[in-house]
Design brief:
about 45% helix; alpha/beta; seven-stranded parallel sheet; Rossmann fold; disordered N terminus
Length: about 250
Amino acid sequence: MTTAEASAPESVNSLAGQTVVVIGGSSGMGLEAARQARSAGAQLVLTGRDRDRLAAARDEVSAVSTATLDIGDAAGLDLFFTGLPQRIDHVLVTGGGPTYSPIADLDFDDALQVLDEHLLGSLRIARACAGRIRPGGSLTLITGTHARRPGVGLVVAAIAAAAVPTIVANVAIELAPMRANAIAAGFVDTPLSARILGDQLDHRRAELRAELPIRRVVEAVDVAAVAIHLMTNTAVTGATYDVDGGQQLLS
């Protein structure tokens, strides 16, 4: 057996005996990733902003602990990671969606808050968890595919989507042996999407079913499956995986 073979995971789908921290794990993609990680044998630590949703998620996936947490709260992040067990295995970061507004109408305070959360927040988390994640463990950030082409109202989302892959590439180098990767999602049918689109949600679903190469809408389960893959495949770091059903291929 070679050294490479000896260090490979016993099962690409197993998280048995490992601790997974899901930041933003009370709903949507984060909660679905928590479900799949639990099914793969992981112990879970969940964070969220809404106490009631967080409590329901804790009960559903039998999380060992939970914490209310805002990614924009630097002091709160430090306190959270300080209180974690000495060694954890994986951290998955989801969060609130970006702000959508034409430049002429942009609220710069809102934009600053979103960019601080998605960009500096990612760096804060990376630095805070680097010393606690075991060698070969992982940090996964979720962003979007908005940066692929310009569009009215997309400028803040595009900045975040363009920057996150650069962040994980640098984290993968600077904070090794912790691995760092990103998932760039297109439209995903989640409660957050429902809140953003309101009564336009069904129309958007129908459009995507007709237009996407996969002929269906991307679900939280699709994104979560890639998140689990990035946790368990120890050969992957510094990468960004697109999960958008081919949306970026459309004109």
